[in-house]
């Protein structure tokens, strides 16, 4: 139950961490958008697989019948072909870390220069190969930024593709070029109206378009001999021969070149770059210092985006591994725990019990809670400690005039102090602590205290269930209580490392409480702090699933946030307070190495990794297959839970003390039907 504590540290509003998180989110989104655009938007189909469609009414006939190097300017369009007996070897789609070096080695052995039409993203990934192309005297030219189909791309995307390609080339090699080969292009005779419109925009951006006059069709991988046959000129006319040094297995291309180059030389053909073959001035120029700097910046950002995605991928693996590990351990623990239903701790426990109910402004549900307790089938006394309520909580309890129910009024001092007050007033050895919004089953108290038949038991956790499940938020929490909290408690029970006896339903041995000095108010999770202290003192804490109590869960996202924020932050405080248990021996060390490790992995680290799943899901919805991505998600509730952990960690790191945040009570629970109060 939430209420203000007596000693409040100065409250500092935490706004900075949300600003930092927002900035990180914006940067991350930018990186992922860039990565998705450069790696998944285009380039899936090989050259030649995209066939031209549509008419060619606007394409000048001189272009259709002309050479493969085209100036599509606003004046009279022009084109040129290679000189007779001249072969311009052209390689598309690189550079590739495997095949481009082999092509370069072979060309160097044969003393041949070629033209490499490189893809901007590949240059950014392998800038050293691009520099080697230039250093060895080959001509380097542009093949778009992402191997996009410029014919079908929107004008703004064409501009982006051309601009970024040139920047990356300048950053990687220090040169710029005026030659560009559009991806999926072929010979001039295949141009369509849409192709011509794209070539005109390409010319407006300052490029000459370089098509091909002969296609080796190595992209089909038809076999080495067929690649050679496709590459052999049919006459003495010069050719711009299309080949590839990237885009998959190019072993056939390498094998074909080893045989093709000597054969063509023997037939009297010479090899030249594109500009030399058609008689154009050198299209390659030194890039300016500013352009090189901008290009290096683009390359740096692209590499950073790749690194970010790599980190996200590994974090996704880590989150998946932790999730699977938690699922396996909890299922195994649940099955083993279920086999212990007939376990007896010793002789039946029949002695009376003191029930302490700390109450602060609990007028909405206090009557139902008290009536459920006095309807119990086990002898007990009820002590209601009114912690300075202003809504008449104590008056409501006194007006009930139920024998065995006492009210103690005190100034507001906080829940731990109220529980200590009740502990001093209690008459019996066995103590049950109950929140003022909790309704007990008639047999809950009796079942809850049976494990005390064993002298080593210091505390028992009951089975808290959500009573107000009417709304969506209530149903979410009900599922969480059943498959989350209670399954965890089964595991903790078996591993003898129970970290928390919930304030809603828990029982304690008075001797154990007095030995550790009662409850402490130095953390916001007094129940977790208390349980950890008992474990470290050598007491065993167990879980009694059959002791059922119904608690009132938050009914709004705001109330849920405040509750979980306090829970999480308080748990972090308790873990830090009891961190030395990790290196202790005996039962304290068992609790530390098992319980604290489990909490750190699955209740701190796993929620902190959970945003990775959401980030990857958004990335996948945009760039991958949505059907494979959507099943990863549980919207709203899961995000709320991990944001709570993120805020709690930031709060802890900032050294800010979080104040108690009182839960809003609705009075939605009713006392179970039981025997009349005598």
Automatic annotation (TrEMBL):
Query: Family assignment?
Result: Belongs to the glycosyltransferase 2 family.
Pfam families from the xrefs?
Glyco_tranf_2_3, Polysacc_deac_1
User: What species was this sequence derived from?
Assistant: Kribbella hippodromi
Q: Which residues form the NodB homology domain?
A: 85-272
The question of whether Nuclease is a record keyword is answered with: no
> In its UniProt entry, what is this protein called?
Glycosyltransferase
Q: Which UniProt keywords apply?
A: Glycosyltransferase, Membrane, Transferase, Transmembrane, Transmembrane helix
Q: Provide the transmembrane region boundaries.
A: 12-34, 314-334, 598-624, 636-655
Matches recorded under Gene3D superfamilies: Glycoside hydrolase/deacetylase, Spore Coat Polysaccharide Biosynthesis Protein SpsA, Chain A
> Which InterPro entries does the protein's record reference?
Glyco_hydro/deAcase_b/a-brl (IPR011330), NODB_dom (IPR002509), Nucleotide-diphossugar_trans (IPR029044)
